[in-house]
Amino acid sequence: MDDTAASGTRTIRSFCRICTSVCGILVETDGDEVVKVRGDRDHPLSRGYTCPKGRSLPQMHHHPNRIERPLLKVDGELRPTSWDACLDDLGTRLRDIIDRHGPQAVGVFFGSGIGMDAAGYRMAQRLHAAIGTPAKFSPLTIDGTAKALISDLVGGSPALSGRPDYDNATFVLFVGSNPVVSHGHTVAMPNPTGTLRALRERAEVWVIDPRHTETARLASRHLAARPGADYAILAYLVREILRDGADREVIARSTQDSTVLAAAVEPFTLERAAQTADVSPDDLRDLLDAVRRAGRIAVETGTGVTMASSANVTQWLAWALMAITGSMNQPGGAWFHPGFGHQLEKAVLPISPAEGSFGPGPRSRPETQSFLGEWPCAVLADEINAGNIRAVLNLGGHLVTAFPDTERLVPALRDLELFATIEIIDNETTALSTHVLPTKDQLERADITLWDALLPRVAAQHTPAAVEPVGDRRSVWWVLAEIGRRLGHQLADTTSAEVTDETMLARITARARRPFADIAVEHWIEVPHEVPAPWVDAHVERMGGWRLAPRLLVDQLAALEPVESLVFTPRRQKRRLNSQLDHLGAVPEILLHPDDAAGAGVADSQPVTVRSASGAITGTARLDATLRRGVVSVPHGHQSANVNRLTCKDDLDLVTGMVRYGGIPVTIHPA
Ligand SMILES: Nc1nc2c(c(=O)[nH]1)N[C@H]1C(S)=C(S)[C@@H](COP(=O)(O)OP(=O)(O)OC[C@H]3O[C@@H](n4cnc5c(=O)[nH]c(N)nc54)[C@H](O)[C@@H]3O)O[C@H]1N2
Ligand SMILES: Nc1nc2c(c(=O)[nH]1)N[C@H]1C(S)=C(S)[C@@H](COP(=O)(O)OP(=O)(O)OC[C@H]3O[C@@H](n4cnc5c(=O)[nH]c(N)nc54)[C@H](O)[C@@H]3O)O[C@H]1N2
Ligand code: SF4
Ligand SMILES: [Mo]
């Protein structure tokens, strides 16, 4: 749709790229002005649904702090300049750093800001490969490394992206995910309230979360378990199902090491699990009964799991439980996305080594390792301090709020010889940068959905640009190819007016299920998926069955101890996306149980200071009697109450390099 009315107003059919739900939207414009964004009722996936974040795209586009010109730091001050001057300076300095110290002196962060820019993201991968630096960072190691780790170790491929078969499920267990607010972790759930209400009509929905969340309110049952102790509940379920209720034939045919798994979970009796997770034994018995009744089950985890120190073990036991109940690759259990742009069933999926896809870590932190070719975000400050990383290309990230240990990170970023940031709106990270590169926001660029596996369907969609770019904003792909050119790499023709965003999109969909021209015309193309999928069965058979008991996970389980003190846990907010959308006015509300607040002399709606061993932040106290006692729930992404002042770059899981982002001991004080 592109209705041009006589008055100069237009309505453009597009899709929202704030989060991975990619809802269909109609963008109303009047000349250069974006007047309104509303849901597209004809969209096959979202059917008219939007959330306040998507509807605020006009405010994001017209943000008072939007960046329109390239900025170059001169004498400690960012000054507007031309693209040529900015990129020439950047290119010269970058080449000099590489000549003096080698490509490993350049760190590249693939931030969320380019995560939904298909052409930009692909060009970032090409530039990173051309530079040839091992110092690659992404939200993988600050969001959910455990998920990719378990796909790799248990499923034999990080490309195996499992998700609940909501269409057929009769039992779904959410552990540490609140889709009503988040719209899903890694796998999107558009219209979550509608989806969950429909699910409840035929399925039992259980939620494990220290908060009585918006999702828990729609669920059949809720367990307010101790943060970081979810593994004990899952270990108990695995133990009991293996004893009585497991499908022997399925275990023999499609799994390996079930006896090692049984031995690993043997200590998790009802009493032990109830005590570790601090939930009632009756609730655990009910949960076990529900799993047995359902037969096939779907377990979905989120950042409540992946940000805890028990992340790997919890995610493993969730997969193990689905495998031993015969729920993997089966209706009502988990299904695996076959890809639209990159078709997984077309080639034989390589089987990852049983000991995991790890490589060497950075020199300054030899105890860490790389995973899937990435270094942990937690090592960046040390690598800069050691003089190993001297330049950082920050592609759409807000490092100051996203990376752990703000107190140690910020001085390190200040020490960089070069810190180039691709952005649309200024923030504390752009202020620290030496070069700020303004790129098109989502309404200014044509795009496609890039991350097939995050979609709940096997589909592709396209949007044209809704408005012309403001000021000097350019495409991310163009900016990165221009940087590449100055380093001697020909990544794309940046000089020809014939080479457009659409050209780049066509290029990256060359091997998709349907040609780019069709996607561009039809906006949304979907193909059905099979459950069971033969390519998944073939992969699992070649592997010798789901690997139920990877050694390193068995060892981690044996070493886990729950934290007993007052701890803080992470949470997302409805009117915010990570550090973004401050125009929606979400304040850093720190949720406290009234008893904990009373004990510390903190009152509702008053400023409260939360202190950890790393630092302190002050937000607004909100007393919530449904929150578990002993838990302080702190939202993420606020500059004013930056939760990463409470985290520590050295408090990490040595397997994945993921810093502990939840379950950290804190004290609370009236501010
Ligand atoms: N302690 C703690 N730390 C956390 C978390 C937590 O819960 N607790 N959450 C973690 C998680 S899950 C994640 S994913 C990371 C997120 O960390 P980041 O990847 O840094 O993501 P955002 O904070 O969303 O910042 C994205 C930036 O991109 C910009 N942007 C938006 N749209 C565009 C665009 O179209 N083009 C360009 N060029 N830029 C754009 C925004 O203005 C914003 O500054 O943080 C992690 N850090
Ligand atoms: N509105 C909005 N939507 C978002 C985002 C946003 O910032 N705002 N961010 C996007 C991003 S980048 C991501 S990664 C996803 C994340 O998606 P989700 O993982 O669903 O994120 P949350 O909504 O924070 O839900 C996590 C839940 O885990 C609970 N929790 C904390 N610690 C524990 C624990 O130890 N055990 C258990 N069982 N639960 C625990 C928290 O109380 C919270 O309810 O959301 C995405 N969507
Ligand atoms: S859920 Fe909201 S932010 Fe996410 S795609 Fe839909 S409208 Fe955009
Ligand atoms: Mo995330």
UniProtKB/TrEMBL annotation:
Q: Which Pfam families match?
A: Molybdop_Fe4S4, Molybdopterin, Molydop_binding
User: Annotated Gene Ontology MF terms?
Assistant: 4 iron, 4 sulfur cluster binding; metal ion binding; molybdopterin cofactor binding; oxidoreductase activity
Q: State the signal peptide span.
A: none
Record-annotated 4Fe-4S Mo/W bis-MGD-type domain positions: 9-65
Q: What keywords appear on the UniProt entry? A: 4Fe-4S, Iron, Iron-sulfur, Metal-binding
Q: Which InterPro entries match?
A: Asp_de-COase-like_dom_sf, MoPterin_dinucl-bd_dom, Mopterin_OxRdtase, Mopterin_OxRdtase_4Fe-4S_dom, MopterinOxRdtase_cofactor_BS, Prok_Mopterin_Oxidored
As for family, the record states: Belongs to the prokaryotic molybdopterin-containing oxidoreductase family.
Identify this protein by name: Molybdopterin oxidoreductase
Naturally occurring in which organism (per UniProt): Pseudofrankia inefficax (strain DSM 45817 / CECT 9037 / DDB 130130 / EuI1c)
